[in-house]
Amino acid sequence: MKRFIAAMLLLLTCSAHAGTGVDQMNTFLQEVRTLKAAFEQSVLDQDHESAARSQGMFYLKRPGYFRWDYSEPEDQMIVADGRQIWHLDPELEQASVQNQETALKGTPAMLLITGDPVENHFEVIDIGNRQGMGWVELIPRDQESQFTRILLAFTNNELRRMEMADKFGQITRFQFFDIECNIEFESNFFRYVPPEGLDIFRPD
Fold first, then answer.
1. Is residue 10 part of a domain?
2. Signal peptide: which range, if any (predicted)?
3. Which residues constitute the domain of residue 141?
4. Which residue blocks in the chain are alpha helix, DSSP H?
5. What's the CA dihedral at 166, 61, 19, 123 to 10 degrees?
6. Is the dihedral of CA 27, 29, 33, 37 positive or negative?
7. Any idea what DSSP says for residue 195?
8. How open is the CA angle 117-121-126, to the nearest 5 degrees?
9. Does 75 fall in a domain?
10. pLDDT tens across 8-62, in order?
């Protein structure tokens, strides 16, 4: 009987550990090659009052590629093609382009698309379960990062929430829905070719 109780306690301990936010994050980063999900984004100002809301589709291909297609309140597109990040604003008929490695340094996007160990770039803190999700707090090791902390929430090894607090006190939150993992994308899906005559800004 004592052995049975000890075995059950061990099983419960292992099961609880397997469901932690850190474990789910590691499984997500190790097993997800590609991802497609609908998202809702909200931005809170310094007083934690709602400043903006938007939604669209998010696409990921690891390592090196992502794409955000905003549909509301207006069409915009952000594409990381492995070398550069393009931010297209069709309404203004202009785009900005930056070196990808420089632009993503210390951001959660870098965590999602690179194959580097998370601990190389962030202090990782498991903050337990809330709202049925396992939460992880990431503190950027890069002192020049524009973010002070990043929160990730997982359910069944799927990324469901992401929250970023920047140095100006602004908080950006993402919720992900209708998630599809390890699907195939067309070869040029993460490639952006600017049309002739488009106004291009290069902050680099």
1. no
2. 1-18
3. 17-183
4. 2-18, 21-31, 100-104, 108-113
5. -40
6. positive
7. P
8. 75
9. yes
10. 333 333 333 347 999 999 999 999 999 999 999 999 877 677 778 899 999 999 9
